[in-house]
Amino acid sequence: MRTRSVLAAIGAAGTLVLTGAVLPASAAAPAPATTSHPYTCSNSGSGSAHIVNCVGTITGIGNVVKNVDIDISDINVLSGNQLNILETSLEDVADVKAGTSVILQKVDLALVTVDTYVNKLSIPIDISKVLVDVL
């Protein structure tokens, strides 16, 4: 019956929007997502030596947790919001792919990094600039 309650909530919210009712900011804001594979990204260096470094975890076959270090060689310094977008993309992949081969997860992390840069941040980048290292 969860589907009905979700549809009812969507219908009610749509009715409020159509009638011009204003929802308080706290009601309109999405709940913060939780992840079992948190990532932290930061800028390091400058110019041609600039990298974005992301550190997090993956869970491989047999629930073995591995630490991951991702270096993106790019001259573009990412803002706080852009870093958050990248972190969320990496967390989503690590959560969804948990329990699969570590090698495949490394590939998926590299691919989502490029996809995030190109499609969400509008920054062209080549996959050869992304190094995913499992520690």
Question: How would you characterize this protein structure?
Answer:
The chain contains four helices and four strands. With 135 residues, it is an alpha+beta fold. A four-stranded antiparallel sheet has the order 1-2-3-4, with helices on one face. 20% of the residues are buried.
What's the topology here?
Layout: H1 2-18, H2 25-28, E1 40-44, E2 51-59, E3 65-73, H3 80-96, H4 102-120, E4 130-134
Antiparallel strand pairs: 1-2, 2-3, 3-4
Helix pairs in contact: 3-4
Which percent range describes the beta-strand content? Answer: 15-25%
User: How far is it from the N-terminal to the C-terminal residue, by CA?
Assistant: 44 Å
* Oligomeric status: single chain
- Please describe the biggest sheet, giving its number of strands, its sense, and whether it closes into a barrel: 4 strands, antiparallel
Enumerate how many helices there are, as a single number: 4
Strand line-up of the largest beta sheet: 1-2-3-4
Regions with pLDDT < 50 over 5+ consecutive residues? 1-31
Mean pLDDT: 82
